[in-house]
Amino acid sequence: MGHSAAVWDHRTAIEVTKDWNGIDQVVLRNPQGASARVSLHGGQVTSWRNEQGEELLFTSSKAIFKPPKAMRGGIPICFPQFGNCGSLEQHGFARNKLWMIDENPPPLPPNDSRGKSFIDLLLKPSEEDLKGWPHSFEFRLRVSLAADGVLTLISRIRNVNGKPFSFSFAYHTYLSVSDISEVRIEGLETLDYLDNLCQRERFTEQGDAITFESEVDRVYLGSSHMIAVIDHEKKRTFVIRKEGLPDVVVWNPWDKKAKAMADFGDEEYKQMLCVDGAAIEKPITLKPGEEWTGRLEVAVVPSSFCSEYLDH
Asked: What is the pLDDT of the chain when averaged over all its residues?
């Protein structure tokens, strides 16, 4: 495997096709047969499959694949606002815009390229965007798929404005799970969180792990760089590593909210869980010329390997 990774040419592992709305999408593949699909609508990862072809991200069967609405599932990017805490549309505008392929991005460290298939995307504000949010920025996104199937998203946001601006951010990651009642999250114990079901009141997590028996909509604050989402029924664990993203959003709508959403199946809350690397409580502020980087890495490992993997 090491040898195939060494001679792996990331350009031959990329295919650009069109979706049924005629929008370009990029398919990344690795030598083992894993794949990821990224839409230029929103710069959104819409699929991530392991080498057996099994889908690891959740997408609702009722998802609306019609711009300008963001698709319900995959990994939408929330920028420059998370939720409805500001003057912009829910979760900001980046997920509803058409991105372009960045043919000549500023270099990233060699280990973010070696042995990986990757695509670089770019978003700049239109004149219309600047009316609603009057700040000039360049948002560069690299999505990469490694030889071991690990999916990585690296966002670099630069202020090309004459004055500072602030933003919040999240990778709104919809994980596919076997049964939400059989899932637990480790790595958020003892943290403070803002509960969106209680007007963002602040609480402290008391449990040894987070489990699910009703609606959850929380922002965990100041978390460590690694958390684990353990799916008992599938005996597999999502290991999420993050940098530049101090907060973690945990969301499952449960039955009543699921029924109220037009683009979400009534029972689909059982098969999904959103766990987002995010920067929400303390917005990021960039001075003119400054750049922020937020990195998310998601791996899937057999749960039996998990404790050993988490020790690395």
From this structure: 89
Strands 165-171 vs 272-286: parallel, antiparallel or unpaired: antiparallel
Which among 128, 157, 158 is positioned nearest to 68, based on CA atoms? 128
Segment 209-226, tens digit of pLDDT: 999 999 999 999 999 999
Contact by Cβ (8 Å): 143, 38 = yes
Q: Which residue has the tokens 């609603």?
A: 132
User: Which residues, including other chains, have CB under 8 Å from residue 60's CB and lie 6 or more apart?
Assistant: 72, 73, 263, 264, 265, 268, 272
The dihedral sign for the CA sequence 45, 120, 125, 295: positive
Residues 6 or more apart in contact with residue 57 via CB below 8 angstroms:
45, 46, 47, 48, 73, 74, 75, 173, 174, 175, 176
Contacts of 33 (CB under 8 A, 6+ apart): 51, 52, 53
> pLDDT digit string (tens) for 183-193?
999 999 999 99
100-131 burial code (b ≥16 CB/10 A, e <16): eebeebeebeeeeeebbbbbbbbbebeeebee
Q: Can you spell out the DSSP letters for 204-244?
A: E--SSSB--SS-EEEEE-S--SEEEEEETTTTEEEEEEEES
Q: Side chain identity at 48, as an amino acid letter? A: W
